[in-house]
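ARCHIVE RECORD
Type: protein–small molecule complex
Small molecule: zinc ion
Source of inputs: curated submission
Record status: active
Notes field left blank by submitter.
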Amino acid sequence: MSQDALVKRQFGHRARLALSPAGVLKTDDQAHAARTMWNLLHAWWQMMPKEKRTLANADAAIRQAREDIGFLAVLPAQAAQAVLKMYFQAWKNCWDGRAGAPNFKGRFRTVMSVDIPQGRDLNIVRVHRRWGMANIPKVGRVRFRWTKGLPVGKHANADNRITGARLIKDALGWHIAFRVQTLQGKPEPHQGPDIGIDVGVSVPIALSNGERYEHGEWLTGKEKDKLLHLEQRAAQRKQYRKPGEPAGRRLHHTYGQIRLNRSISGEAWGRTVTMLAYKTARHGGTLVEVPAAGTSRRCSACGHTTPGSRESQAVFVCKNPDCGWSGNADYNAARNVLHLYRMGRALIPAAGRAVVRRAKRVKPAAAR
Ligand SMILES: [Zn+2]
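STRUCTURE (tokenized, with ligand):
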């Protein structure tokens, strides 16, 4: 494979760290020092006149702080540099409109983390089928669960390597997120036919060629339990309502909660579309979205939208006297999606191979 047929790909890989109690304390201290460093930088920034807020001046200020404030020395110099870089990046993100202005980091609302910006400092070795060892600066060699082929040792080279890592503490303790860079074969442009896709919230993904795909669970187990519980409660409250009486405040609240929970499945829908776009691109295709309006009411056989055509959720029956086609409703919608794309109705104009219908999102009632 020639060099120009390869593309760089960057991804993260997380693994839990098996730190000793002393190692946990040392890493905690580093994270507190990193947060303090950030806060010192922010205070410095606010004090400085605009023209003196340069990277070189900030660097000098944090070097001075590391000499003056004893406990900041626990933070490795590379990690301190990473804080500086991240702080300036935060301002850049703000100026480019991607994020709000940086702020002080509070003791309890900040995720504890330490950056290891240089991959070579990690000195990763696989010691067992299931365990790897990494060097955590100023903490020592630490074991981590080996779950995936990381490019280390003889598998590492200039193009396939670990470029750095970040230590992050969550409810279960410290883990390490490796930054992995690989060079992979570029996919050949896809030569297959255009396919229309209908993605509903509660039905399988329907394709215009008649195929159907089950997608993963929209809601997590917990979300599902909550939704079920709310629906049961609404049914219960309805029982106590006398006929003709308007729904009470509590029932209204429960309905609102149900709608809010259903909107979560709308988010899951977005995740599926994102994944679809990513997978399509990796196989040389393109995903294009078209507007959803009318795709479930139009007959894909005759092209007419006749009033009363859609009979039920599952079956589409055309009421046009000259047509009378009937079939699976989602298949019909997927064919309409493809038709819209061929008519140039793409929301993002691009030469595409796959088309997806934008489903209606449920707006949370309780918002605002
Ligand atoms: Zn028809």
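CURATOR ANNOTATION: Residues 1-186 form one domain.
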